[in-house]
Protein 1
Amino acid sequence: MNEAQPFSKLASHGEMIYLALRRRLEAMSPWKWILLSIFSAVFLSVCFLTPKFWILRQPTPGSFEWDRATTFIESSKAPWLAPTEAAMRWRLLPAWVAYLTGLRGMLALVIPWLGLVVWLGTTTWLMAKRSGDRLLGSASSCLLATSGGALAVTNFLGLNDGWYLTGLSVVTLARSPIALAVAALVCPWVDERFLIALPLAWLCRRHLVREGHLTNASSAVVELATLAACVAFYTICRLALSTGMPGGSDLTFLRSVREELPRYLSFAPLGWFMGWRVGWLFILALPTWLWFRGQPRHAVVLAAAIATTAALLLLVASDISRTIAVLSPIVLVFVVICATQSASGPRWRLILLLAVAVNLLLPFAHVSHVKIYNVNSLPFELLRVWKAPGPVTR
């Protein structure tokens, strides 16, 4: 008993601090709370896992930071032309939005950052709705901001991952069937990876329905029919547009990726780990929790969906640490379920905050193809800005 007392006191103090922060957030207006949550998540991410400002401050051909930005800027000038980069061939929506809103040149790079802001803000709001806890929503967005998907947006220019990840959060957490349909119609035109992760997000959504966290949702049959119709519409449109679009075929691109797969396959475990780090505890815990709760069928289906999603993404994309962020629905669902348990809820809320802190402190590296790209903290990167005042060549 004496050995357990220090831990009990620490947990008690932690819960008191949590409740005090929660009361402050509950007293805020919704917009002030959402904006504070977004700012906190991005601020912490940038301070602890800092972009290389000395490269970002000017166009640097051949760098990770500017590789996709150059393609996106060119696409935003004339989105009806086939991009020079095959992976961007069907990611039409962000370029068209930039073109129609008059965002040209460097201004077009606002859109990827806006996508990150929308993802964090939407997820914060929906997590608070599902859990009844604003601080839980804010902490969840902070955890997402440490994932490989968010760090790819903050560290590299021109990546619109935040938009399709917003769609996955909506599919997982939103009650409205209209929101579900809009996400399924829009997000594939941002990134095809949304379609690969869509079944997993829907399985997570149905689990929330079974647990009573997503009331008044449509039946599984209606939701499946809605999603199938949206995916079919996208497929028909894509087939129709492909007949008049110049450039190489999709099969040629996929074949080239598969030919490279043996080279970067050995980097997959490191890339997957870097994508979530401590977050993997939440991902692995959900099917395990289902198994020990007497739901082995659901546990096996969910585990198979996680493995299948990761394997399919590995076949079509070599930016491993960035792409594995599509497992965010698993993280969000586990947080909602555990944090709302009457007995262990307070303890899991503290574990979530601790996971955010550990993810910020752990080393991180982007893993893409056969390259490992280390990320440093703010003091180190500021020193590099000071030490590298001239043009950067890489």
Protein 2
Amino acid sequence: MELAAIISSLLGAGGIGAILIKLVERGLDKMSNRGNKRRDEVDRAWRRVDREASRRRKVEEHASHLTRLLIAAPCVDPTTIPKFPPYTSTDTRSTDTKES
């Protein structure tokens, strides 16, 4: 009984117990394939964000092109063309990028 008490006190005092717990957790994650599932989930989220950003850039480029066409058109007064809405950090629209 004294040997077990000595070993547990040495593990606790040296911080090795916390390291052993982390190693066991990582081993269990590897065996259950949880790490790969989490990585796949993160990769899917990044792909979804990239698709949304790409779509937004295309819309902005198209709006810019149409604005240039309106400015160049002789039948449109350039002062009547509305300005592009400014980007704000306090946008009240939903930032949910979940696919429907």
